[in-house]
Design brief:
There is one protein chain. The chain is mainly α. Among the domains are: 176 residues, Helix Hairpins; 36 residues. Helix content is 72%, strand content 6%. A four-stranded antiparallel sheet has the order 2-3-1-4. Helix 7 runs antiparallel to helix 10. It is rod-shaped.
């Protein structure tokens, strides 16, 4: 009887003795039933192939692969494509799989059944493998009721996986190369734009680019020195010209006076002398003094003569100019040539002065605009360098991708290699009769234990003295033994008398 009291090991042993056959009989019948069920189930044979990953033959340091997916990721993607209906339906029709169900079940159901019969299992890396190296291979298994068909279908599936891997790797490599080619063309276009922009900027700001500031300052200092020298030379030439012109005027005047017969210079000297005398007399005498009046009369007559001489000279000068020019003495002609040379030098130096002033203004503007031009130049060169670095990076990646693509086409890259071909199964993989027998044994034991527990739960009898004391809350005075023949009877009497003596002692004590 199972109650609320705590059971000891002796109680469990007693229950096991009482319900031994209840447990043993299901345990014996379970394996027999399980084995019989395995005989009744249809047999299925499994063919398996081991496919290993063969690394690329060219070292990664020379040609880096563009396919970076791990094997389990590629297997998941390839399995979705290979196990699709468009791939599996031709296999079902070619090998005549599920012949009995083709007319009754739709093709979707047959494809689903075939998918359940295909198993992909990655190979576990060995203990000494490098961490992060990926799985070294995988198993392809297929199960069906015909061992020959299982072998053929397994080989066909393995071939499909190998072809799909080659096709996917080549497509991935070619797609990467095409993408990088487009990126390279775009990078080249941007680089050409930046190059044209930089060239135009250099053309607009020639002489103002960074690094030319000191050169501009040196040129500006040289131009200022040249301008100062030209200015001094121009000033000296102008002075020489003015002096020569004054000498020429005196020579011409003296020569013309000698040609006219009267010398205006002598009359002017006489007039100046008389005027000085008049000033002296006026300082000494009054204006009414006879000497003063006579001096004024002489000065008036001399002025009259000077005016008549100058008028006569002017009238004759027009007619005699050309003749006089031809007949002028050599010193006068030489002075005229000197004046002409001075004028030529003055015009030339003036032009040099203007040219130097314009150049000085130009270089002053360059020096003043150098900080702004340098800032703009840095922005343009930064954009140009960025475009150039991106172009070089794309060019290197495109070249690397082209080599990887060529490696895939030559099948020198990573590929699948069949290590163990699809085997011809000799024994069925399902049902596993020892496993069914073991399952029947386990099920029988569980069933027997369940029945024993159920019987104990429904049993209301008291089997031990502890049951009596626990449920009745009274001490046991005596136990009636179970009589049997031989040794058991003798043991029963002994047990009876021991229990009786113990009960008597407990009663006396009470």
């Amino acid at each position: 009887m199972l109650g609320d009291r705590q059971l000891s090991i002796d109680d469990y042993v007693a229950i096991l003795r009482r319900r031994l056959w209840v447990i043993v009989i299901p345990a014996i019948l379970g394996p027999v039933i399980g084995y019989a069920v395995s005989l009744a189930l249809p047999e299925r044979y499994t063919s398996q192939t081991l496919v290993l990953i063969e690394q690329q033959k060219v070292p990664d340091s020379y040609v880096r692969s563009v396919v970076t997916e791990q094997l389990h990721e590629r297997l998941a993607t390839m399995s979705e494509q290979i196990l699709s209906r468009t791939r599996l339906q031709p296999i079902i029709e070619r090998f005549g799989l599920y012949k009995g169900d083709e007319g009754r079940a739709p093709m979707e159901e047959l494809v689903a059944r075939m998918r359940k019969s295909i198993a992909l299992t990655p190979v576990r890396p060995t203990a000494g493998a490098k961490p992060g190296g990926g799985v070294p291979g995988f198993y392809v298994a297929f199960s069906t009721d015909n061992p020959r068909v299982a072998q053929q279908v397994c080989a066909e599936l393995t071939s499909m996986f190998m072809e799909e891997n080659l096709r996917r790797r080549e497509q991935r490599a070619q797609g990467t190369t095409d993408f990088l080619q487009k990126q390279l063309e775009e990078a080249k276009r941007k680089l050409d734009e930046q190059d044209a922009r930089l060239a135009a900027f250099k053309g607009r700001h020639i002489g103002q680019l960074p690094g030319q500031e000191q050169t501009n300052l040196n040129i500006l200092m040289g131009l200022n020195t040249q301008l100062e020298a030209v200015t001094q030379l121009l000033s000296r030439t102008q002075q020489d010209k003015a002096y020569t012109e004054s000498l020429l005027a005196q020579q011409i005047q003296a020569w013309e006076s000698s040609q006219a017969g009267s010398n205006p210079q002598t009359l002017e000297q006489q007039l100046a002398s008389l005027q000085n005398q008049l000033i002296t007399l006026e300082a000494r005498y009054t204006s009414d003094h006879p000497d003063v009046i006579k001096m004024k009369s002489d000065i008036a007559q001399l002025k009259k003569k000077l005016d008549e001489a100058s008028t006569a000279n002017k009238d004759a000068a027009v007619e005699k100019t050309q003749k006089a020019a031809r007949a002028q003495p050599p010193p006068i002609q030489q002075m005229r040539n000197q004046i002409y040379q001075f004028e030529q030098n003055i015009r030339e130096k003036t032009r040099d002065q203007e040219r130097l002033q314009q150049q000085i203004k130009l270089y002053q503007a360059r020096v003043q605009l150098s900080p702004l031009v340098e800032q703009q130049y840095k922005e343009i060169t930064r954009d140009y360098q960025t475009a150039l670095d991106f172009y070089n990076d794309m060019l290197a990646k495109r070249t690397q991708s082209e080599m990887a693509t060529d490696l895939e086409r030559r099948q020198q890259a990573e590929q699948f290699r069949v290590m163990d071909p699809a085997n011809l199964p000799e024994t069925p993989s399902f049902p596993d009769r020892p496993l069914f027998a073991a399952g029947g044994l386990g099920g029988g034991l569980i069933l027997g234990l369940g029945i024993a527990v159920l019987l104990e739960a429904r049993d209301k009898s008291l089997h031990t003295e502890r049951d009596i004391e626990f449920y009745l809350q009274l001490p046991a005075l005596a136990l009636v033994p179970t009589f049997s023949d031989g040794h058991d009877k003798k043991d029963g009497f002994k047990k009876h008398f021991r229990k009786k003596d113990a009960g008597s002692r407990q009663k006396v004590e009470a």
